[in-house]
Please model this.
Amino acid sequence: MNAPIVELKSVGKSFRSADGTARSVLENVDFSLREGEIVALLGKSGSGKSTMLRIMAGLISADEGQVHYRGLPLYGPADGISMVFQSFALFPWLTVQKNVELGLEAKGMLPDERAIKAKAAIELIGLSGFEGALPRELSGGMRQRVGIARALVMEPEVLLMDEAFSALDVLTGERLREDILELWESGRLPTKAILVVSHNIEEAVMMADRVLVFASDPGRVRDELAVKLTRPREVEGSEVRGLIDKVYGLMTAGSMRAGRGADKGVKLGLGDRLPEVGISSMEGALEILAEEPYLGRADLPKLAEDTELNDHELLDVASALTLLGFAQLEQGDIMLTELGSRYALADQAERKAIFGQQLQNNVPLIAYIRHGLVQDPSGDLHEDLFLKLLHFTLSETDALAVLRVAVEWGRYGELFEYDFNTGILNMPASEEVDIT
Model:
């Protein structure tokens, strides 16, 4: 086995919320990226994957543990590590040529030399003839190629790709991924190792020699799957489909089951994240599951195709359904519970009643909001009260996202109402509150 180029040992990282509360993003992360391999990192949004990449790139420092590059401590940006971002991050007033030259200019390279190197990187990534174009004149796929060329022109040993294909349409993303793999297999890339952060399970299996699954709150490597297939890989081949099923199984292994963690049997906490899933997505998945050909049980990759949800969206839907007791997950399959089948066949009034009851049983934040409204003489409370509570465990952005989900779910379950102008939560108008 090749020696690691980048190595993380017991790495931890925390950030402080607006109220000064420390929030652990990474904890005890152990990871090695070795020469000659492509590694894919999968995990939920907010699990700390991007933070881990920025630590590896030397853009931010770890609070705990050690980060080594070629056996030496990494204290800042390393010349041998480059990063490609999801957002392209191009300067709109600079041409393709000038955008690619930026890193070389920062290193003090002479204009003629950096022009030659940038032109070679642009040609390598398939953009010859567009050197003088501005970013606004390019498609999304072409703009991302510029971002990749800007990283490759530095001739990095390690290329870090932070969801580099996720902002592109499916076909453009696949084409760019295939081109990167072709360059890798041909040995034309200067890079010796690649780490890809992705939400796309198929993409991970098609590209990687190892697939890592990241746990959340705090982030850490939870599972690893070796992919020993030669490249190029046939996406419809039985071996690839089998590996995709295995990764789905690993991704769902830690999902909630009727309000309890499948791993530790711990109830969902008051300040925990909630899957960012709308009611229509949940109900649509339940209805499809209840009908032919599934009749209550489905393979998650097949369900993704039929619902037209991407992997990230489908996993969030599956997590929400299991959290509320409407489904169970087993080795990459999702199965309706008896309650889930009943829900799929119910009319809207019965659905709302079931939904509201399951929220009170399984989502402590929503149950806490409901209880507070019942106990308050006025029957209404401001959202800031609950945001302050969430800030003890979540960042300001995450707290807002959790409360937004809780409000949508609680309103549908007719547990409370919400005024979007004032931020006031109150009891449904149809209910008489008796606190005696």
